[in-house]
Specification:
Blueprint (H helix, E strand, L loop, with lengths): L8 E2 L1 H11 L7 E8 L4 E9 L3 H7 L3 E6 L2 E6 L2 E6 L2 E2 L5 E2 L2 E6 L6 H18 L3 E5 L7 H9 L3
Parallel strand pairs: 1-3, 9-10
Antiparallel strand pairs: 2-3, 2-6, 4-5, 6-9, 7-8
Length: 155
């Protein structure tokens, strides 16, 4: 018997936070990092970051969460949803602030987690009304150069 694709709802307070984030007036880079609360089957806020570059953001991502068992520790790979407001300087001098949805999906995550995040990604993108959707498999790939290259396809 195969497992069905689990789609989690988006927490109401997060929906409101994403709406306000979309219309923010600040001109710095900012991020909302989200995770899935497995027990509640909800996408919830994990962390908010202000004034953060793409390179700083990758250092904040919880790709590898430490877990402790007995006398040793190990790492549990974790997927993450990010909505990132990025100050984009165009070649012609214009400035825009695109909202980017970044799905951090490290190789080696548990199949149950992969299904839950994959099933919930589209619902979250639709709820937040985002069009610039990117996926990274390794957080080291999240650089300013990578983001500018991805955004270049939209301009």
């Amino acid at each position: 018997m195969s497992e069905s694709l689990v789609v989690c709802d988006v927490a109401e307070d997060l929906v409101e936070k994403l709406r306000k984030f979309r219309f923010r007036k600040e001109t710095n880079n900012a991020a909302i990092i989200m995770k899935i609360d497995k027990d509640k089957r909800l996408v919830v806020l994990d962390e908010e970051l202000e004034g953060i570059s793409p390179d700083e953001l990758k250092d904040e991502l919880p790709e590898r969460q430490p877990r402790y068992s007995g006398n040793f520790s190990f790492f549990n790979l974790r997927k993450t949803f990010i909505v990132y407001s990025y100050k984009y300087q165009h070649d012609d001098g214009r400035v825009s602030y695109p909202l980017c949805f970044i799905f951090s999906s490290p190789v080696g995550c548990k199949p149950e987690q992969q299904m839950m995040y994959a099933g919930s990604k589209n619902k979250l993108v639709q709820t937040a009304e985002l069009t610039k959707v990117f996926e990274i498999r390794n957080t080291e790939d999240l650089t300013e150069e990578w983001l500018r290259e991805k955004l270049g396809f939209f301009h």
